[in-house]
Amino acid sequence: MVTPAWDAGSSGSLRRLEHQQHHQGPIQSVASTPSARISQTTPIQDPVVASVSLKPGDAGLVSSLWMVIFLLHLLAVLALIIFLAVRGQVNKRSDFRPAFWYLPILAATGCSAIAAAVWLLVVLRWPSRAVKAAFWFAPLLTLALGILLIYAETAVSLAFGVIGLVLSLGLSLYACWVRPRLPHANEIMASSLPGTHGVAGRMAAFVAIALAVGFIWSSIWSLGAGGVAAARPRFSVVYIVLLLFNLTWTMEVIRNILTVTIAGFAYMRLGRGVNIDPGEAWRNAWTTSLGNVCLGSAIVPPIVALRGAARSVSLVSGDADEFLFSCTACFMGAADRLIELGNRWGFVHVGVYAKGFVAASEDTWKLFLLHRMEPVIDLDVTSSFCFLSGVAGGSLSALLGGIWAAAAAKEKAYAADVTLYSFVIGYFMNRITMSWPQACVSALHVAYAENPRLQQHLVAPITDRIQSLAGSAGHNLKPPQGTENSQVPTP
C-alpha cells in the first residue's frame, strides 16, 4: 500500500505522490477503516488532457508579495480602527449611545455564526432540501429586511430598502427561472459531498476555527465602524469604504482558506482515490498557499461580478441591434478572458499542486474548454445556492440587529447603520460555512476535467448534463473521450 505524501515544505501534495504512482501503479487509499474508505479510482489521463500542464508548481515571489500586502493591509486597517474608535469616543455626538450601537451588532454577529453553523449541518444532512429552501427563504428574508430599512426613514435606509424590495422580487423570479436546474444541483452535490465523508469532524473543526476568526475580526471591525457613527467625521464615506473593503477581503481570505483545504482533500479522494491528512492540508492553506489565497480572494469577486453583468447584458440585448450586439460581444470577450485568469476552480489546483493562482485558474479553465464543460459551469446553480444562503443569513442577522437597535435607539440613523453592517457581517459568516459544499463541487468539476473516466457514480451528473445541454442546443455532440464506459475497476 502506498502512503501519499503531503509535505508542507514541498510545492504540492502530488510531488511524491505522482512519482510513486509512476513506479508502483494505481494509488490506493491510506484509510484503514470502512467509514474512511472510498472506492479507488485509477488516475488515467488521455493525451488531450495531458497536453495541459498539470505538474506541481511553486507559488513564487508573487504569492509572497500578496501575502505581505495582505498582512500590511491588516496592520494599516487595525491602526485605522484604533484611530476611529478613539476619535469616536472623544468626539462622539450627544445622541450616540455605545450600548445601543455595539451590542446589537455583536449579538447579530454571534447569532449569524451560530445560524451559519446550523445551516451547514442542514446542507450536509439534507442537501436537496437545503437547495430548495435557500431559493425561497432568501427572497422572503430580503423582503423583510427591505421593509425594516424603509421603516428607518433615512435617505440611506430608504435607498437600500427599495434595493432590498427590488432584489427580493428579482430573487423570486430567479428562483422560478432556475427551478429546472435544481435536480442537477442536487445530483452534483450528492456526488461531491462524499469527498469529505469520514473526516467531517476534522473539517467541522476547521470551519469552527474560521468562524471564530471571522467573529473576532468582525467584532474588532465594528469598533471602527462605531467610531465613524459616533463622530460623523468629514470623510465618513471614505472611512466606511476602506472598512468595507477590508472586511470583504479579510472574510474572503478566511473563506478561501477553507476552500483550499477542503477542495484539496476532496479532489485527492474523488479524483485520485486517496486520503491525505486534513491537518496538513489546513496548515498548508494557512502557510504555503496563503499568498495565492490572498490574490484569489482579491480578484475573483470583481471578476465574477463583471462576468455576471456581461452575461446579463448579453441575455437582455440578444442580437436585435447590430451595434449593441457588437458592444455586448466585446464585453463578453473581455469577461471571458478575465475569468480564465481568476476563477474559484483555481483554488483546487492551489490546494493540490500549490500553483500560482493565475496559472491554476488558467489550467482549470483550459480543461473545462477541452471537455465542453463551460455551459455546465455557467448553468450550475450550486454557486447561486451558496450566494443565496449568504443573502438569507445576512438578512436574518440584519433583522436581529436592526430590530434591536430600532427598539433601543432614539436616532433611527443608528438603527439603519446597525442593520446594514449586520447584513454584511452575516452574509460573510454564512459564506464561510458554505465554502464546504462549494469546495466539494469545485473539486469534482476539476477532477472530471482532468480525468473524465472516473467512476460512473461520480461523473454521471456531469456527463448527463453535457449530453443534455448538447441535445437542447441541437448538436449531436459526443461526451468527452473516454466517458462512454467511465466505470473503472477498482484495484
UniProtKB/TrEMBL annotation:
Protein function: Choline transporter.
One Gene Ontology cellular component annotation held by this UniProt entry: plasma membrane
Family: Belongs to the CTL (choline transporter-like) family.
Origin: domain of life: Eukaryota
Membrane topology: Multi-pass membrane protein
Membrane-spanning ranges: 65-87, 99-122, 134-152, 158-178, 199-217, 237-267, 385-407, 413-429
Stored InterPro entries: Choline_transptr-like
The keyword Transmembrane helix appears for this protein: yes
Keywords: Membrane, Transmembrane, Transmembrane helix
GO molecular function: transmembrane transporter activity
The protein, known as: Choline transporter-like protein
Compartments reported by the entry: Cell membrane; Membrane
